[in-house]
Amino acid sequence: MPKPDSALLDLARYPFSATIESRFGDMDINRHINNVALAAYLEDARVRFYEQTGFGGWSDGLATMIVSLAVEYLSEGQYPDPFTVFCAIEDLGRSSHRLVQLIVQDGRIIAFARSVLVAVGDNGPATLPEHFLENAKPWMLQV
Asked: How many Å apart are CA 37 and CA 105, to the nearest integer?
């Protein structure tokens, strides 16, 4: 994935953010936060996003599965300063939606991520629940 469009790096467009503390054990040999740890911060914030929005416990017998995840590492993260991870739904499909995220530390954008998540039922991919579609608007990437 090439460097993201600068419009996707505008923090004001993201309706959700979560602060995640860096950990000493997440540093690599160069004393930077390891990329694998940054991916775990994205995961943590994604779960917090879905819990905050009420999309975390879908009824209707559905679960969510990530089918694609791309991360662009744009700068180095440092210990011990905390990170803020911003999240927004970028697009809605029939059975899937795209989520975009930014990791920011001390005003610097450390990483951009885009993931595709699919609603899954007993028989595979399923139509997104109506309540998800109705309640998604405030959590969409702002114009």
From this structure: 14
